[in-house]
Structure formats: structure tokens, C-alpha cells
Design brief:
Layout: E1 6-11, E2 26-27, E3 30-31, H1 32-41, E4 48-54, H2 60-68, E5 73-76, H3 81-92, E6 96-101, H4 109-121, E7 128-129, E8 142-145, H5 146-155, H6 159-164, H7 167-170, H8 200-213, H9 222-231
Parallel strand pairs: 1-4, 1-6, 4-5
Antiparallel strand pairs: 2-3, 6-8, 7-8
Helix pairs in contact: 3-5
GO molecular function: 3-deoxy-manno-octulosonate cytidylyltransferase activity
InterPro entries: Cytidylyl_trans (IPR003329), Nucleotide-diphossugar_trans (IPR029044)
Organism: Azospirillum lipoferum (strain 4B)
């Protein structure tokens, strides 16, 4: 069998309900989206990265940011994120899809590469994810075959399945073979960290991490963030009160 074409698709839009425009907020002189896409593009095993955004004029700057980095852009309906992902996967001629979200500017390419490698090591799998309850929140990624994405896009009617892309797959363990989510090889210290950007407090923390680490180590990984937070334990309090949005 030919090597599958593996494509990472990230979703981004300007009209986030809790922190509008968050993906273009600056850190170390660049938008968070640019940091996210640059880091994602360094993932071992990836053949391409695509940004999925909306057709709204408000997302023209999002598309322009990605295109300035040489990242192809697919634009679709704001509410139907599943349809957007299916369109982006078709544009990129993907066989396997890695799904991430652009509110994760500290995404770790080595960790996403491990996800890809583990998925490919077991050809029977239909779905594999990074365990966001065991890793810091903001390193999240999922991988699955494009054929299942196309099936979901054709058949899903539940609004939550259209908005969140993968519930159509992981809610049906009787039909699809779900792998055991990736967990850290050693306990995360400090625990209960939150590095995704949903609210101003999240941005403040992520901004500090990028500004502190990028100059001395442009290829910093998630463990470098943990070490910095051990050195600055008070930073953990910046966004401790923020609660993760749950699936409808």
C-alpha cells in the first residue's frame, strides 16, 4: 500500500465568543496563529498543513496570516465546522487527517508526531487522540482516516457533531475502533495546566511563556513550558479560574 498522505487541519475564526480576535493577538512580535502554524508545520510525518476558516469577511485577516506563511486555506460555513474540515481535507487530498485548533499556540510538534506514529503502528485503528486530561490543555490533537470524516460530514445531524467534528466517530465505539489516548510518559509537573487561549487570562499566560522561551530556544517543547512554570509557580494562578467549555 502506498504511504498515506497525512494532513493537519487547524480551525480558526475571529468571532470567538469569549475572546474575539484571539488567534491574531500578538506574542513575541507575531500573531498567535503564526506561532501555532509554524509549530504545527514542524511535525514529523506530516505532508501538509491546511487552515480551515469561514467565508466571513471578518476572517479575511485569518486567511491572510496563513497564506503569508505558505499555508493553504479552505473557507466554509461558520457553524458547520465538520463541513469545513471535510472541504479542507478534500482540498489537501488527505488520506489521514490530524485535527487541531488554532487556540493552541503552544502545540508540540514532537507530541503530534508521536500521535501520528502510534496511529500508523496499528492499522486497525479508526481514531486516536492526545489525552487532554493528562497533558496540559492546549496540546490537543486527534487523528483519523479521511473516509470517516467524509462519512461524518454526509451523515451527522446532531449540532454538536457538526460543530466539534469528531464526536460522530468517538461516540460510536461499536462501529469504530478507538485507540487508547496518548498519555505522558511521566507525570506532568506542575499538574492541571491550561495553555489553550479562550479568555484574557489564558492569553496572559501563553504570552508570557512564548516571550520567555522563544528567543533562547525557538524549538521549545511542552516540557520546557513545564520547567518554566516550575520556576515561576505564581504564573499558574494567572488562568487557574478559567473553566474549559464543555461539549453541548
Amino acid at each position: 500500500m502506498d504511504k498515506p498522505r497525512i494532513v493537519a487541519i487547524s480551525q480558526a475564526r475571529m468571532t470567538s465568543t469569549r475572546l474575539p480576535g484571539k488567534v491574531l493577538m500578538p506574542a513575541a512580535g507575531r500573531p498567535l496563529l503564526a506561532h501555532h502554524l509554524d509549530r504545527l508545520s514542524r511535525t514529523p510525518g506530516l505532508d501538509a498543513v491546511v487552515l480551515a476558516t469561514t467565508v466571513n469577511a471578518t476572517d479575511d485577516p485569518v486567511a491572510a496570516c496563513a497564506e503569508s506563511l505558505g499555508i493553504p486555506v479552505f473557507r466554509g460555513d461558520e457553524q458547520d465546522v465538520l463541513g469545513r474540515f471535510a472541504g479542507a481535507a478534500a482540498l489537501a487530498r488527505a488520506d489521514l487527517v490530524v485535527r487541531v485548533t488554532a487556540d493552541c499556540p503552544l502545540i508540540d510538534p514532537v507530541l503530534v508526531g508521536r500521535l501520528i506514529a502510534d496511529f500508523r503502528d496499528d492499522p486497525s485503528l479508526d481514531y486516536l487522540s492526545i489525552d487532554s486530561t493528562r497533558f496540559p490543555r492546549g496540546l490537543d490533537a486527534e487523528i483519523f482516516p479521511r473516509r470517516l470524516l467524509d462519512e461524518a460530514a454526509a451523515n451527522a445531524v446532531d449540532p454538536a457533531e457538526r460543530e466539534h467534528v469528531t464526536p460522530y466517530i468517538y461516540r460510536r465505539p461499536e462501529r469504530f475502533r478507538l485507540g487508547t489516548a496518548l498519555v505522558p510518559l511521566e507525570p506532568v509537573e506542575p499538574p492541571d495546566q491550561r495553555w489553550c487561549v479562550d479568555e484574557p487570562a489564558d492569553y496572559e499566560l501563553v504570552h508570557r511563556l512564548i516571550e520567555a522561551l522563544l528567543t533562547s530556544n525557538p524549538a521549545f517543547g511542552w516540557q520546557d513550558c513545564c520547567k518554566l512554570l516550575r520556576d515561576h509557580p505564581d504564573w499558574m494562578d494567572i488562568n487557574r479560574s478559567v473553566r474549559q467549555k464543555t461539549l453541548h
